[in-house]
Amino acid sequence: xxxxxxxxxxxxxxxxxxxxxxxxxxxxxxxxxxxxxxxxxxxxxxxxxxxxxxxxxxxxxxxxxxxxxxxxxxxxxxxxxxxxxxxxxxxxxxxxxxxxxxxxxxxxxxxxxxxxxxxxxxxxxxxxxxxxxxxxxxxxxxxxxxxxxxxxxxxxxxxxxxxxxxxxxxxxxxxxxxxxxxxxxxxxxxxxxxxxxxxxxxxxxxxxxxxxxxxxxxxxxxxxxxxxxxxxxxxxxxxxxxxxxxxxxxxxxxxxxxxxxxxxxxxxxxxxxxxxxxxxxxxxxxxxxxxxxxxxxxxxxxxxxxxxxxxxxxxxxxxxxxxxxxxxxxxxxxxxxxxxxxxxxxxxxxxxxxxxxx
Length: 358
Prior knowledge:
Blueprint: E1 4-7, H1 20-37, H2 46-53, E2 59-68, E3 71-81, E4 88-96, H3 105-119, E5 124-132, E6 142-144, E7 151-153, H4 157-164, E8 168-179, H5 184-197, E9 203-208, H6 216-226, H7 244-256, E10 260-267, E11 273-281, E12 287-295, H8 304-319, E13 325-331, H9 335-344, E14 347-356
Parallel strand pairs: 4-5, 12-13
Antiparallel strand pairs: 1-2, 2-3, 3-4, 5-14, 6-7, 8-13, 8-14, 9-10, 10-11, 11-12
C-alpha cells in the first residue's frame, strides 16, 4: 500500500471512539522521546497533544503523519506565530519509527511541514532535535554551534539528516536534570541566606496556576522579552507578542490538560514584574519541567534569578514533595543561567540541536 502523508485527524475527545490516530501519535511520540532522552517522563499524553493541536488566537500548529495502511510510521509537528510580521516556522518534532527509517519518510514529512509554512508566509524554517549524551559519542567528529561550547556528534542521525537538507547548526541547548526529592529544607535555608545578603527592595510573589490580576500586564511584558532577550545563537527566533489575554489562555490550557504551574515573580519597588520563573508539573508523571526564567535587563545584578528559583523549589517541596526530577533547557552560551542551574544541582544528560537554512 502506498505511503500516505496527511494531517493527523483530531477527535472531539481524547478518549472518544475516533481517537485512534491521536493515540497512535502520542504512542510514537513516546517511542521517539525514549530514544532521544532515555525517558518518557516528559512525553505529552493524548489529552495534552489534542489540546496543543487545537487552534488558538496566538499560534498555528500543524501535525502531519506518514501512514502505511492506517498505521502511523512517522510524524512532524510545526508551529508559528499568528502575526503577519513574523516569517519563521519551528519544526519542533520530526521522527520516524525506527523500523521504517532510510525510506525517505522523514524527507517527505519535512517537505510537507515546509510547504504548510510557506503557504502561511513563513519561509524561514527552524528544525530542532534532541540527542542523549553517550560516552561513546566522544570518539567521533563533532559539530560545534557558532556561539558557546555546545557540540554534538557529527554522525548523529539528526545531524546527518539536517546537513543533507541544507540546514546549518545554529545553536545547542543543554538538557539538564536535577533530583529535588527531600531537599525542601535545603532550599529554604539557601533562600533565607539569599535574602540576608540582599540590600534591595525587590519582593517575591508566588502563585499556582493563575497570576494575580495586578501583575498580569507586566508579566506579559516579561514573557514577551523571553522571545528576544535570551541568547539566540545563529537562529532567527521570532518575536512573540504577549498580553494579559495570552497569559490567561496559557493558564487555561495547562489546567485543561491537568498540569500544575508554579510561578514566582520578582516585583520591583514600583510594582512592575522584574522577572519570573515557572515550573510545570506534568500529570501522571513524577517529572517537572523548568519553563521560562528571566530577569529583565534593568533589574539584573541582584541575584534575583537564584532567589526566584529557590523560592519556586520551596513551593514545589510544599505543594508536591513526591516530585523528584526537574528537567530544564538552556542555551549553551547562556553562562549566567547555566551557572545558577549548576549551583542548584542540575547536570546535563542530553543536548538539543537547533538548525536553520542559511
